Amino acid sequence: MPGPLLSPLPLPDWPAQEATPQALPGAAGLLLPHDGGPVADVRERPDRWALLKLAAAALRGDVPTLAWGTGAALAGRALGARVHPGGPAGEWAEAPRGAIVHTWEGERPLHWTHGSLTAWAGPTLPPELRASFLAGLEAAPPRLPATPLEAVGGEAALRPLLADFYARARADALLGPVFAAHVQDWEAHLERVTAFWVTMLGGSPAWRGNLNPIHAGLGLRGEHLERWLALFGEAARAHLPPGAADLLLARAGAMGARLGNRARPGRVG
Predict the structure, then answer these.
(1) Which of 46, 126, 166, 174 is the most buried (most CB within 10 A)?
(2) β-strands 117-120, 108-114 pairing
(3) What does the DSSP assignment read for 169-194?
(4) How would you classify residue 222: left for phi > 0, otherwise alpha for psi between -120 and 50, otherwise beta?
(5) Could you report the per-residue pLDDT of 40-49, keeping only the tens digit for each?
(6) CA nearest 31: which of 120, 101, 154, 91?
(7) Which of 261, 187, 166 is nearest to 220 (CA)?
(8) Sign (positive/negative) of CA torsion 42, 80, 6, 15?
(9) Greater model confidence, 263 or 214
(10) pLDDT at position 268, please?
(11) In this structure, what DSSP letter does residue 241 have?
C-alpha cells in the first residue's frame, strides 16, 4: 500500500493511522466511518466542521475514500449533496451530482460512488466493500500530487523548513537587523508565513494579503532579496528532496519577481 490508511476514529480491525490534514498528501486512502455525529448542522460543533473540511480536502485531492453511515452522509455533504434525517444511520445524503448509484433502498442511495469515493449509507459496512476497497489500494499506481503543497510534503514539511530558514535569517549579518527591527512576536510571524506558503502552494486559503504593502518601508534592497533566496534555498535543500526543493524555490523566485525586479540593486517596496 503506497502510504498509510487514515481514519478520524480508532478502528481496531483496520490498519489505519490518525487522519489529519497534514497526513493527507501522503495517504493511501481515507476512511470516514459511521460515528452517529451530526452532519447537516455542524454550526456548534467545530470538531464536525473540521471533519467535513478534511473530507472535502481528501475528495478534492482525489484521495481514495471509503465512507459509511454518517461518514457517507458527511462525504455527500462535502460534494454538495442535501442531507436528510432518518434511516438506520441517523442521517443520509442524496446522491451528489455526478455520482453513480449502485444500490437503492427506497429513495435513499445505499451504495454509490463518485470519483475516488466509495459510499455506503448504512451504519455497518459490508465485508465485500471493505475487501474491494483494500484491494484497489494495493493495485493502485502512485497517486500524483493534487497541488504543489502536496508535492513538497504538505504543511508538516513546511513548518520545520520555515523555522530553520528564520533561524538562519535572524543570525545573518544582513537580514538579522531587518527582522529584529520589525518582528516582535516570532511565533505569530511563523504562523502567518506558514499560512502564506500553504495558500501560495494551493492549500486552503489561510492567508489573505498583499506582499507589496507588507514589505514596503522596510528599507530593503536587491542584496537583501538575494540573501533571502540563498538562505531559503539552504533551508529548502536541507529539509526537502531535490524535486520538492526545486519546486518550492521556483515559487520563491517567482514571488521575488512579483515584488518588482529585486534581483538587481535597488529599493524594495
Answers:
(1) 166
(2) antiparallel
(3) HHH-TTTHHHHHHH-S-HHHHHHHHH
(4) alpha
(5) 999 889 999 9
(6) 120
(7) 261
(8) positive
(9) 214
(10) 32
(11) -
203: exposed, middle or buried (Cβ count in 10 Å: 0-12, 13-18, 19+): buried
Kindly tell me if the per-residue pLDDT of 210 is higher than 80. no
The structure's pTM equals 0.63
Of 112, 93, 87, 117, whose CA–CA distance to 102 is shortest?
A: 112
CA atoms within 13 A on the CB side of 154: 12
Residue 81's SS3 state is: coil
**Contact indicator for 240, 152 with CB cutoff of 8 Å:** yes
pLDDT surpasses 60 at 262: no
Cell of 84: 436528510
3-state secondary structure of 42: coil
- Where are any strands of DSSP class E within 106-249? 108-114, 117-120, 220-221
- Encode pLDDT of 182-196 as tens digits: 888 989 989 989 988
> In the numeric block, which cell numbers belong to residue 235?
533551508
| CA–CA separation, 240 and 148 (whole Å) | 13
